Amino acid sequence: MDLGLKDRVYVVTGATRGLGNASARELVADGAKVVLTGRDEKRTADAAAELGSDAVGIAVDNAEPQAPARLIAAARESFGGFDGILISVGGPAPGFLADNTDEQWATAFESVFLGAVRLARAAAAELEAGGVIGFVLSGSVHEPIPGLTISNGLRPGLAGFAKSLADELGPRGIRVVGLLPSRIDTDRVRELDGLSADPEATRAANESRIPLRRYGTPEEFGRTAAFLLSPAASYLTGIMVPVDGGMRHGF
Description:
The chain has helices at about 20-30, 40-50, 65-80, 100-125, 150-170, 185-195, 200-210, 220-230; strands at about 10, 35-40, 55-60, 85, 130-135, 175-180, 240-245. The protein has about 250 residues and is of the alpha/beta class. Helix 1 (about 20-30) packs across helix 8 (about 220-230), helix 3 packs across helix 4 (about 100-125) and helix 4 (about 100-125) runs parallel beside helix 5 (about 150-170). The longest helix has 25 residues, at about 100-125. The two termini are about 25 Å apart. The model has no long low-confidence stretch (mean pLDDT about 95).
């Protein structure tokens, strides 16, 4: 299936590893051009180099107020256009209510929530009809995940913001979509599993609750993201797509 991605230009944040990187890889593989970001300059440059001439890396923190303008300008200067953005941010510090400090909450709000709002606002001002704004959120949008209290507090709010944005931008022909990963086999998930006393038993228990009986791969997530960002998904907006092997109960 031709997704219509050839020569379209996307910004993908948090793309030096994990789900953002997998999404950037799939976009480039299908013919798109990508500006990818990360906080570490060398890691960002290396990630872009691995994808070849259709990728440019910009070292930037989502929490920086000037980040959105820099990234959109880089897309236009490097590839001559700007067709969409996938806003992927690192997960906040794990912990329960008594574990997380005010500083951790404030840092996560700046990066995960306000940073994403700024990126989406800047993209909305620049995109034309056919453009798309995507959010990488979490299965915690629908069901809290034990031990991830900060994420549980912030991700559902971003999902509500995304839906409001979809309603507002729809008349301009701009789509807004979200992806809700659950147990995808990334460094972040392995780190979280490793916090338990018995990581192997934790993984086995998690897999037993997944209807497909396995963790997803980053590549599977990336293919889903590439489709949702593509013209092939031109009538999909205001939706949150679980990428979770069937873990979510209900419709």
